[in-house]
Amino acid sequence: MKTGVKDQNYNMDKAVNTFALVIITIIDMIMFAGYIADYRKGNIGLLFVSAVIVAVLGSLIANYAVYFRKKDSRAFKNVSLTGYIIVYALCVWGAKNDMVYCIAFPITLLFILYFDYGMIVRGAIAFSVINITDLIYVVLVLKHHHSGAPLDSTSLLIQAACILMYMYVICNTTKISNRNNELKIAGVKAEQEKNASLLRDVLQVASAVRENSREASNYIQELGRDVDLTTEAMGEIAEGNNNNAQNIERQTIMTGNIQSMIEETKQMSDNMLNLSGQSAQAVQSGRESVQSLAENSKKSAEANRQVEAAVQHFIQNVGEVQDIVSQIFAISDQTDLLALNASIESARAGEAGKGFSVVAEEIRKLAEETRVLTEKIGEIVTELQSNADEAIGTVNNVLEASAVEHELIESTHSHFQKIGSSMDGLNGNVQQIYAKIEEIMESNNTIVDSIAQISAVSEEVAASTQQTLEKSVETREKAGNAEQLMENLVNTVQAMDKYLEE
């Protein structure tokens, strides 16, 4: 603030000094040229023109020296006024022109610009004294005007009145002007004080705004960084959620494939359960058949014993023997059929039925042998009458074959018992597998439902994440705008720092 006032005062003093120097130079040059012309005309003498030239040049040299040493010098007005008074005195006292006293008017008007009442008064007194002295000199010494004209009281009165009134007017004008200026300056100072107080308040507010703006700018920058981090994190979450969605989609496909495989396995398990039940029924039927074979074997053995007991009566009871042969044929056919069924069931039983297959084959062979023997018995029956001894031997063979057959049937029955136990265990295992597959299907259905729920939630999260990401981008843009506005505000407030420094 003080520096600005100094610059303003400097510029003002410099402008007044420059203007005064120009006007004084012009007036001095005009007087210089005029007196040179008067000298050439012979109106004035060499001594007087030399004194004027020395006074004019000395005054100009002094003025220019002071001005260029310091263009706003306060001493310039005193130096220039003093030099001009000297030149004016020489001109008034030695001139041959009665109106030369008028050159006091422009210079005194010029010095009003300095607003120095004391200097104006001193100059007015000096100019008045010079003119009064000149009037006294003209009246008492010369007894005529400088131009040579006879004395004219009106001209003398006009000269004295003009000079005195002019100087009086100049002094009072300067005084009144200075007083008015002082009042105005006082008003301006009061207004300046008021403005300074207001400016101080504004600067305090500006300082507070600057600090708050800086803090707000820092907060906004932190907010911008946080929003950037949030946006980056939301982008990562969105990317991760997209990966999760892809994984869930692949998991859904895999779960569907697992569901299909489980259903196929369940169907196979159903078939296994049905086959196991059929196998169990077949084994039970084989056991019952073997039981029947055992009973029939017992009956056959009893019949053979009866044959042996009745062989002596064979000839008399051929018809009864034929019946027995028929029964044997029937038993042989049934045995063959049972052996065939046993072979089929053993083939179905797989590895567990290999032993039973051997037994079934043996039974079949025995059935064939029984058929052969029965045919032989038939032949023997036809030959019984001729060879009873052979009949008795054949009966013994039949008895032995029946014993072997009974043993084989017992062995077959034992194998069927083992196959039955194995089939029962197999059936239990198949039922357990079926139950486990049912549980797996329920669990897989639960997993499918959970994946569907997770997929729905993932879609909702993806939508929310996308919205949040868009809001984060929008918030970042707003934060950037706010940061720019705060930066502009800080720059605006910083423009007032120079007033704070002043």
State the low-pLDDT regions, or none: none
Cα separation of the termini: 5 Å
Estimated structural class: mainly alpha
Arithmetic mean of pLDDT: 76
Please summarize the sheet with the most strands. Answer: none
What's the helical proportion of residues? over 70%
Number of helices: 10
How large, in whole angstroms, is the Cα Rg?
76 Å
Order of helices and strands: HHHHHHHHHH
Tell me the fraction of residues in β-strands, as a range: under 5%
Q: Let me know the number of strands.
A: 0
| CA-based shape | rod-shaped
Question: Could you write a compact summary of the structure shown?
Answer:
This protein has 502 residues and is mostly helical. 90% of the residues lie in helices and 0% in strands. 21% of the residues are buried.
Folded structure, characterized:
The protein is 90% helix and 0% strand. The chain is built from ten helices and no strands. The protein has 502 residues and is mainly α.
Write the layout of secondary structure elements.
Blueprint: H1 2-41, H2 46-69, H3 75-94, H4 104-111, H5 117-142, H6 153-310, H7 318-349, H8 354-383, H9 388-494, H10 497-501
Identify the notable features of this structure and list them briefly.
502 residues; mainly alpha; 90% helix; rod-shaped
